[in-house]
Design brief:
Length: 362
C-alpha cells in the first residue's frame, strides 16, 4: 500500500510538472486517504504548498479537532489567507462567539481581519452572541462597513440593533439621521420607518436607497428600524413637527407589518399597524398640521375610496393630514417619485396608477 501511495504521488507530481522535494512528497502521502486522492491531485495541480495544508489542519480547537476540512483549506488557499491570520482569527472567534467551519471560512475569505474581529469583540463586550454575530460582521464588512461607523452608531446614537446598523450603513445614513444623535436644522423634518422583518428584502433595494438620498437633500431625515408600533410612536413624538411620515412594511388591506409576516394570524398585535390602533389619533398630532403620510405597503388602500382599509383609517386619525397608499400589491420598481418637497409618489402597477390619496380636498 505504501508503494502504491508513493507511485500515485509520483504520478501527480509528474503530471503537474512539480519539482517537489522528497519531504513534500512524504507530506502529501501522509495526507492522502483513499477517498481524498482526487482532492489532493487538485491541490497539487494548483501548486498548493503541502506544508500549508498540513499546518492549517494542525490548527485545532479546544477538543483537538481541526477547524478546517479539505474544501475550506482550498478556499483559504485560493484567497491567499496567511497562516498567522488564520491562527489569530480562529483564536479570537473561539473565545467570543459560537461558530462553525463554514462561517469561519467565510469570515476569513470575506476579508474580515483579526483586528476587525478584535474590535467587534470589544464592542460586543460580554454579550457577543446577542449583539453582532459572525454572519452579521461578514455582511457588514462586505457592504463596505467600517468599524468606526458601527461604534459611533452604537455608543453615540444608541443603536443597539446590528441589523439596523448594517441597514443604515448600506443606505448611506450617518449619525445625524438616526437615534439620539438626530440633527434638527432649519430644513423640514421627515421620518422614515422601516420594518425589522423584511422577509423578501422589499425595503433593502437600490430604490429605497435613492429615496433616502433624495430625502436627505430636502429634509432633516430621521430613519428608525423597528419591529413594533411603540417604537414608531416614540419616533413620531421625538421628531418635532415632521412634514413627511413614510412608513414601510409588508401590508394587507387592513394591516402594515413591522415585526412579523402579515400572513401570521398569531403574531403579537404590537408588531403591526392596523385598523384597531385608535391611539394613532393622539400620536399623529405630533406631526406638522400639513404633514403628508405615505404607506409604502401593499394594498393598504385596497377598495379606495370607500372601503374600510388601513389608509382610510389612518386618515381618519390624522386630523386632516393626507395619507397616500397603493390600492394593489406592488414592488419597489413600481414606485415613481415625483417632487421631493412637497413629496409626491405614485404606485404604477402593470401600467395602471394604483395610487390613492385621502385628503380634505378629495
Amino acid at each position: 500500500m505504501k508503494l502504491l501511495k508513493r507511485l500515485f504521488v509520483a504520478g501527480i507530481l509528474a503530471v503537474s510538472g512539480s519539482l517537489a522535494s522528497a519531504q513534500d512528497q512524504f507530506n502529501i502521502c501522509e495526507l492522502i486517504d483513499g477517498k481524498q486522492k482526487q482532492f489532493y491531485f487538485h491541490l497539487e495541480q494548483k501548486k498548493v504548498d503541502p506544508n500549508y495544508v498540513k499546518q492549517v489542519k494542525a490548527i485545532v480547537d479546544r477538543k483537538g479537532d481541526p477547524y478546517f476540512g479539505d474544501e475550506s483549506i482550498e478556499e483559504l488557499r485560493r484567497h491567499k489567507i496567511p497562516l498567522d491570520e488564520i491562527c489569530s482569527v480562529t483564536d479570537l472567534v473561539s473565545r467570543y462567539w459560537n461558530y462553525d467551519e463554514f462561517t469561519l471560512t467565510q469570515l476569513l475569505t470575506a476579508g474580515v481581519t483579526s483586528d476587525c474581529i478584535r474590535d467587534f469583540a470589544k464592542l460586543n463586550g460580554d454579550n457577543s452572541d446577542s449583539f453582532f454575530s459572525l454572519s452579521q460582521i461578514i455582511q457588514y464588512v462586505q457592504g463596505g462597513g467600517a468599524y468606526t461607523y458601527a461604534e459611533r452608531l452604537c455608543t453615540e446614537s444608541g443603536i443597539a440593533n446590528p441589523q439596523a446598523i448594517i441597514y443604515f450603513n448600506k443606505r448611506g445614513l450617518d449619525c445625524s439621521n438616526v437615534g439620539s444623535t438626530f440633527t434638527d436644522t432649519e430644513k423640514p423634518n421627515a421620518i422614515v420607518i422601516v420594518p425589522t422583518n423584511d422577509y423578501n428584502s422589499a425595503f433593502d433595494t437600490d430604490s429605497i436607497t435613492k429615496i433616502f438620498s433624495a430625502l436627505k437633500k430636502e429634509y432633516d431625515l430621521y430613519v428608525a428600524m423597528t419591529d413594533n408600533e411603540d417604537n414608531m410612536y416614540r419616533a413620531i413624538e421625538n421628531i418635532p413637527e415632521a412634514e413627511l411620515l413614510f412608513i414601510c412594511g409588508h401590508g394587507t388591506p387592513t394591516t402594515l407589518s413591522l415585526g412579523n409576516s402579515p400572513s401570521n394570524k398569531n403574531q403579537n398585535e404590537s408588531y403591526t399597524i392596523d385598523t384597531g390602533d385608535d391611539e394613532l389619533e393622539e400620536i399623529l398630532c405630533y406631526l406638522h398640521p400639513s404633514a403628508m403620510i405615505v404607506l409604502d405597503s401593499c394594498s393598504t388602500a385596497a377598495g379606495a375610496p370607500n372601503a374600510d382599509n388601513l389608509a382610510k383609517f389612518i386618515y381618519e386619525c390624522a386630523g386632516g393630514r393626507s395619507v397616500t397608499a397603493s390600492k394593489a400589491d406592488f414592488s419597489s420598481s413600481n414606485i415613481v417619485i415625483g417632487e421631493i418637497n412637497p413629496f409626491s409618489i405614485k404606485f404604477i402597477v402593470n401600467g395602471t396608477d394604483q395610487t390613492h390619496t385621502y385628503s380634505a380636498t378629495k
